[in-house]
Amino acid sequence: MAIREILQIPHPVLRQKARKVRALNDDVLRLAYDMVDTMRDANGVGLAANQVGELWRVIVIQLPDEEEARIYVNPEIIIREGERRVEEGCLSIAGYKGIVTRSVWIRFRAMDHTSNVVKLKAEDVLSQALEHEVDHLNGILYTDHMEAHEKLVKVEPEGENAEDSEDGEDNHNGHSDGTPHMSHNSESGLWLPEEDSRNTPATTKLK
C-alpha cells in the first residue's frame, strides 16, 4: 500500500460531501488500505477519505490499544445520546486542539472491508472518533463544533516553553496570557503522541 498526502485546511475538498460507495471493488479497498497506512504514519486515530483527496464515504479507525485497523464503508450514525465536552485535534488541522461537544454514546452502522454489515454501540474515544470521521465525510470539521474559534490552542512540542518559575518550580499553568499549554499526550483527544507504539504493518490485504 502507500502513504498519501493529508490535505490541510483550507483545502476545498475538506468542505465537500463524500459520495456513497456503490460497489466494494479493488479501487475502494486500495484506497482504504492506503488510508490505514497514512493514518498510522501520521500517528492518528482516524482518517476520512476526504482528507486524502477522495470523495468516497470511507473511514478508517485504529484506537491506541487496538492492533488492527477498522475499515468502514458508507458509515452512518443512527442514534446519538447525551453530550460531553472533549478535547479534540485533527490531522488536517495539524498542530492545534480545541474543546468540542460530542455524544456520550452512539449507535453506528457501516460495511467493513469484507462486505459484512457492522452494527455497534460505541462510547468514549471510539464514539468520538466515529463522530469526527463521519463529520469529515459531510464536509464538517471539528472546529465547526467549537463555541468560540479563538479557543483553538496550538499544540506545543514537549519541552518547549517549559521554563522554570522564579521559585525554582516548573510552571505548568500555561502561557503568560493564561492560555493553557496543550500536550501531545491526551487521553481523550484524537491527537496521539509521536511515540505511538503501534508500528505494525497494515494487516488487511487485497484479495
Account of the protein in words:
The chain has 207 residues and is of the alpha+beta class. It has a domain of 143 residues: Peptide Deformylase, CATH 3.90.45. It contains two helices and eight strands. It has a five-stranded antiparallel sheet with strand order 1-2-3-6-7. It has a three-stranded antiparallel sheet with strand order 4-5-8. The chain is globular. The C terminus is likely disordered.
Characteristic terms for this protein:
single chain, alpha+beta, Peptide Deformylase, 5-stranded antiparallel sheet, 8 strands
CATH class of the domain at 12-154: Alpha Beta
The share of residues in extended strands comes to: 15-25%
Distance N terminus to C terminus? Answer: 13 Å
Uncertain segments are: 160-207
Average pLDDT confidence is 81
- Please summarize the sheet with the most strands: 5 strands, antiparallel
What is the CATH topology assignment of the domain at 12-154?
Answer: Peptide Deformylase
Rg (C-alpha, Å): 18 Å
Number of strands: 8
CATH architecture of the domain at 12-154: Alpha-Beta Complex
- CATH homologous superfamily grouping of the domain at 12-154: Peptide deformylase
Spatial sequence of strands, sheet with the most strands:
1-2-3-6-7
Q: Report the order of strands and helices.
A: HEEEEEEEHE
Number of helical segments? 2
- Could you estimate the helical fraction of the residues in percent? 10-25%
Structural class: alpha+beta
The geometry reads as: globular
